[in-house]
Write a structure and sequence with these properties.
heterodimer, A: mainly alpha, 89% helix, B: alpha+beta, Rossmann fold, Acetoacetate decarboxylase-like, 24 helices, 25% strand
C-alpha cells in the first residue's frame, strides 16, 4: 500500500511540474507570435491560433494542478487518516 | 585521403540568391521556420505532459485506490480524466500504453484531437508560410490557397473539393508540381487532423522531423510492410554498354561528367563503376547509380518501383546489396577510395551503402552525392564521408521521406545541401537527371564549383569503366533450360564469337506481305529454293525485324527481307499447299523458310560475323526498333538518311507463341540454312494497319529490293509481334553438308 501511495504522490509531483511547463509554454507561444508580429511577417491567422493554443495551455495547466492537488490530498489522507 | 578532410563542419543550405531557396536562418522565411521549430518543441512538451497525465490515470496504484477510499480517490480520478480529455485544455490527450492509445484513436476517429496536434498543425502552417516566401504562388493562387486552408482547417469535404477543382483546372501533373514544395506539410496536416488514426504517427514524424515517415500519410499503410515485399539478396552481373553509350561516357572526372554518365546509362537497371587517375596519380573509383527503372512496379530489377521505395525506407535493400556486389566484382583493393553518386532511388541506395559500416570498413567512401533523392534520415557510417544532397523544391521524390522545402530542422549540419527551385515547376520533368544536370550546369554555378572542388581528387582521366546489370535475385541469365546449350567459339574478323548467340531479352516483329509472283521469282532465280509460297495468287514475302536487347554477343538490332519458300529443291517438289503446315513446325523439322534477299544489322560486332550467321551480303546501318502492344515503328537508316520505315498501329490480336525462323541465303557458292529458335509469348495481328515506306532517294540495295518487290507503300497481310522473347541463333549451315 505504501508503494501505491508513493507512486500516487510521485504522479502528483510530476503533474504539478507539468502544469508549470504548460504555463511556460503559453508564455513561449505568446513570445513566438509577438516576435513574428514585430517583424511584420506573422501570417494573419497566426494570432488567433496562438491565442487559442495559449488559452488551452493555461486551461490544461489548471486541470493538471487540480489533478495534482487531488492526488496529493488522497495520498495525504490515506497516509495520515 | 578522405573527401572531408576539412575539420570544420560544412553546411551549405543554399544561400538566398536568384533561383535558390531561402535557407533555415535567412530573413523572413528563416524566422518563420524558426517559429515553426519552436512550436514543435512546445507541442512535444505538451505531448509529454499528456503522457504523464495518462500514466497517472492508468496507473494501477490509483485504480486500486478507488474501491478502498472512494471518497478521496474518485475526485482525483475525475480530475485526471478531465485533464486528459478536456477539449478546452489538453484535448483528447490520452497517450502511451495500449489502452490509452486505443482510446486516443477512438477519439481521433470522432474528430477529437489533442492540443499537441493543434500546435503541430500551426507549426506546419508556418512551414508552408515560410515556403510561400520563395513560392508566393502557394498563397497567391486562389485554388492552391483554398486547398491548403481547407487542409489546415480540417475541412475534409472542402479539401477534397479544392483538390478536385485543382486537378480539373490544372491536371494532375501541374497540380502535383505546384503543391510539391509543401507536399509533405499538406499531407501531414491532413493526416494530423483527419479521422484516420492509422496515419497519425507518420504525420507526427513529418511535423517533428524525428525520423523517416513510417506510413503512408494518407492511408496509414505501413511503409516498412510495403518495403518488406522487396526481397532479394541483390545481384550484379557485368554487362556491356552499346557502342553509342560507351562513346558518350565522359573521358575525365567531373561533377557534370559523372552526372552525364548516369544520364547515359539511363533508368535501364544498370549502374556504372569507373576509375579515374587523379592529379596526384592515385587511381580512385566512382560508383554511378541511376534512378528507378521504368517498367513493372515489381520486376526482377532492384531498381523497380518497389526497389526504389525500399531503398528509401529501409537501411539495406536489394538495390544497395546489388551495388555492394558490383563493387566487390569490380575488384577494388581494401581501402580504395570510392565516391558514390546516385540519382533518385539511386541516391537512396548509395546512401544505404554509405551507412553500411562493414562496407565502409573495407573501402574508403570519400564522397556521397545524392541528386533528387529522399535521404534526409540516412547517415554515413564514416563521419568523414563528404555528403551532398541536391534537390529541386518542385521535385516530389526527395520529399518522400517527409522532409521537403518546408523543413524547419537542420537535420544534417555537416552536409552540403543544395535545395533550390527553378522556373520549371513541372514534375516529373524537374526530377529527371537531365534537368538536374542542366540546373547544375547553368543555374547553380556556385554549387557546381563547390562540388567540383570537393571532387578535385577525381579530376583526371578515366582509366577503366564497367557497367553492371542489377537483379533482385540470381537471375535466370542462361534462360534455363532454353538457353542452356553447348557453345563453341567461331573465329571472326574481330576475334572469336561464342555461338550460338543466346538472346535473353528481345522483341521481334515479322510482317508478311503479298507481292507480284514474277517479281519474287526473279529474286529466287537460280537459288534452288523457289517457287515462292502463294496467297491468293500472290507471292508471300516477309520483313522480320528484331531488337536483341541482351544477348551473349551484346545488344543488336537486325532486319531481314525474305521471300517465303517451301525449301530447297522446291520443298522436295511438294505441292505448295503442303508447305503451309510446314511453316508451323519448329525449326529443327522445317523445310520451308524465307530466302533472304536483304539483311541489315546495326552493330559492328554482329556485322562482322553476319555472313556466318545467315549468309548473303548483310549491310550495317543504324536501325530503330520500337514495338508496343499497340503499334510498331521500325526505321532502317540514320536520321535524315532513312532507307525504309515500317510503322503504324498493329490492330486487333490473338494470343500465340513466337515462332522459330528459318532462313536461306547464298554463301560460298552454296545455299546456307540458318535458324533462329525462339521462346516467348507473341501476338498475331490479322488486320495490321502498318505501312512500309521506302525513302524515295534511298539508293541502298535493300531499298532496291523492296522497290523490285513493289513493297513501297504496302500494308502487310498479317503480323506476328513479340515484345518479350528469348532466342538462339546459331551459324548458318551449307545445305550440301547436311
Amino acid at each position: 500500500m505504501s508503494a501505491d501511495l508513493a507512486a500516487i504522490a510521485a504522479h502528483a509531483e510530476v503533474l504539478r511540474a507539468d502544469a508549470q511547463a504548460l504555463t511556460a509554454c503559453a508564455e513561449r507561444l505568446r513570445e513566438i507570435e509577438a516576435g513574428l508580429a514585430a517583424s511584420g511577417i506573422a501570417p494573419s491567422w497566426l494570432r488567433a491560433s496562438v491565442n487559442a493554443h495559449r488559452a488551452a495551455c493555461l486551461q490544461a495547466a489548471t486541470d493538471l494542478n487540480t489533478a495534482a492537488a487531488r492526488l496529493h490530498h488522497y495520498s495525504n489522507a490515506t497516509a495520515h487518516p | 585521403m578522405n573527401g572531408n578532410d576539412d575539420p570544420a563542419p560544412e553546411h551549405a543550405k543554399a544561400a538566398p540568391a536568384a533561383g535558390k531557396a531561402s535557407g533555415i536562418g535567412d530573413s523572413a522565411a528563416g524566422a518563420l521556420r524558426g517559429a515553426a521549430r519552436e512550436l514543435v518543441e512546445v507541442a512535444v512538451t505538451i505531448q509529454e505532459t499528456a503522457a504523464h497525465a495518462t500514466a497517472a490515470l492508468t496507473d494501477g496504484a490509483l485504480l486500486r485506490a478507488l474501491p478502498r477510499r472512494p471518497a478521496a480517490a474518485r475526485p482525483a480520478y475525475r480530475a485526471l480524466l478531465r485533464a486528459t480529455t478536456n477539449g478546452q485544455g489538453l484535448g483528447c490527450a490520452l497517450t502511451g500504453g495500449r489502452l490509452a492509445t486505443a482510446a486516443a484513436k477512438i477519439g481521433a476517429m470522432a474528430g477529437a484531437e489533442s492540443l499537441a496536434v493543434h500546435v503541430l498543425a500551426t507549426s506546419l502552417r508556418l512551414r508552408i508560410a515560410a515556403v510561400a516566401v520563395d513560392h508566393p504562388e502557394l498563397t497567391d493562387d486562389p485554388m492552391l490557397a483554398r486547398l491548403i486552408d481547407a487542409a489546415a482547417a480540417d475541412r475534409d469535404l472542402e479539401a477534397v473539393r479544392a483538390l478536385r477543382a485543382l486537378l480539373k483546372d490544372r491536371g494532375a501533373v501541374h497540380a502535383l508540381s505546384q503543391l510539391a514544395p509543401v507536399f509533405g506539410e499538406v499531407l501531414a496536416l491532413r493526416a494530423l487532423l483527419d479521422e484516420n488514426p492509422l496515419n497519425d504517427a507518420a504525420a507526427w514524424l513529418i511535423a517533428t522531423g524525428k525520423g523517416y515517415v513510417t506510413a503512408d500519410p494518407l492511408t496509414g499503410l505501413s511503409n516498412r510492410a510495403v518495403a518488406a515485399l522487396d526481397t532479394g539478396e541483390g545481384v550484379a552481373r557485368r554487362t556491356e554498354l552499346t557502342g553509342a553509350e560507351a562513346a558518350r561516357l565522359s573521358r575525365r572526372g567531373s561533377l557534370l561528367g559523372f552526372l552525364r554518365d548516369i544520364s547515359t546509362v539511363g533508368t535501364t537497371g544498370r549502374i556504372l563503376i569507373r576509375s579515374v587517375e587523379g592529379p596526384d596519380g592515385v587511381v580512385r573509383h566512382v560508383l554511378q547509380a541511376p534512378g528507378m527503372r521504368a517498367g513493372r512496379p515489381s520486376g526482377d530489377s532492384p531498381q523497380d518501383l518497389l526497389g526504389a521505395f525500399s531503398s528509401a525506407v529501409l537501411d539495406s535493400s536489394p538495390f544497395s546489396r546489388a551495388l555492394a556486389r558490383a563493387v566487390a566484382d569490380y575488384g577494388l583493393a581494401e581501402g580504395a577510395e570510392l565516391a558514390l553518386m546516385g540519382h533518385s532511388a539511386g541516391g537512396a541506395a548509395i546512401m544505404n551503402l554509405a551507412q553500411d559500416a562493414e562496407f565502409c570498413a573495407r573501402y574508403a567512401v570519400t564522397h556521397v552525392i545524392a541528386i533528387g533523392s529522399p535521404v534526409d534520415f540516412k547517415r554515413p557510417a564514416d563521419p568523414r564521408t563528404f555528403v551532398a544532397s541536391v534537390t529541386n523544391q518542385h521535385d516530389i521524390i526527395p520529399t518522400l521521406d517527409g522532409q521537403g522545402a518546408g523543413g524547419c530542422f537542420d537535420l544534417h549540419p555537416d552536409w552540403y545541401v543544395v535545395d533550390y527551385f527553378d522556373s520549371t515547376h513541372l514534375f516529373p520533368l524537374c526530377h529527371s537527371i537531365e534537368h538536374y544536370l542542366a540546373n547544375l550546369a547553368d543555374d547553380l554555378p556556385e554549387a557546381r564549383a563547390h562540388l567540383d572542388e570537393r571532387l578535385a581528387p577525381f579530376a583526371g582521366p578515366v582509366v577503366r569503366s564497367q557497367a553492371y546489370q542489377l537483379f533482385d535475385h540470381v537471375p535466370d541469365l542462361t534462360g534455363f533450360p532454353f538457353l542452356t546449350v553447348p557453345t563453341y567459339s567461331l573465329d571472326g574478323p574481330a576475334g572469336a564469337v561464342e555461338l550460338p548467340i543466346r538472346c535473353r531479352d528481345g522483341s521481334a516483329l515479322t510482317a508478311y506481305f503479298t507481292v507480284d509472283p514474277s517479281a519474287a521469282a526473279r529474286l529466287l532465280e537460280g537459288t534452288g529454293t523457289g517457287p515462292a509460297l502463294r496467297v491468293g495468287g500472290r507471292a508471300l514475302v516477309c520483313v522480320h525485324a528484331a531488337w536483341n536487347r541482351r544477348t551473349s554477343a551484346g545488344g543488336y538490332r537486325e532486319l531481314h527481307l525474305g521471300v517465303v519458300v517451301p525449301g530447297p529443291d522446291g520443298g522436295g517438289r511438294r505441292r505448295s499447299f503442303l508447305a503451309w503446315p510446314d511453316l508451323l513446325r519448329g525449326a529443327a523439322r522445317r523445310r520451308s523458310g524465307s530466302y533472304l534477299v536483304g539483311s541489315v544489322v546495326d552493330t559492328a560486332a554482329t556485322f562482322v560475323v553476319a555472313p556466318r550467321l545467315w549468309g548473303g551480303e548483310p549491310h550495317r546501318t543504324p536501325l530503330e526498333f520500337r514495338l508496343t502492344r499497340r503499334c510498331a515503328r521500325v526505321t532502317v537508316g540514320s536520321p535524315g538518311d532513312e532507307i525504309l520505315t515500317l510503322r503504324g498501329r498493329l490492330g486487333p490480336w490473338l494470343p500465340t507463341l513466337d515462332r522459330d525462323l528459318v532462313g536461306y541465303a547464298g554463301g560460298g557458292g552454296t545455299t546456307l540454312r540458318s535458324c533462329v529458335r525462339t521462346r516467348g509469348p507473341a501476338r498475331l495481328h490479322p488486320l495490321p494497319l502498318l505501312r512500309l515506306s521506302v525513302a524515295p532517294e534511298a539508293a541502298h540495295p535493300l531499298a532496291d529490293r523492296l522497290r523490285e518487290l513493289g513493297l513501297d507503300g504496302a500494308r502487310p497481310l498479317l503480323c506476328l509481334a513479340s515484345t518479350r522473347r528469348q532466342a538462339l541463333r546459331d551459324a548458318a549451315v551449307p545445305i550440301s553438308a547436311t
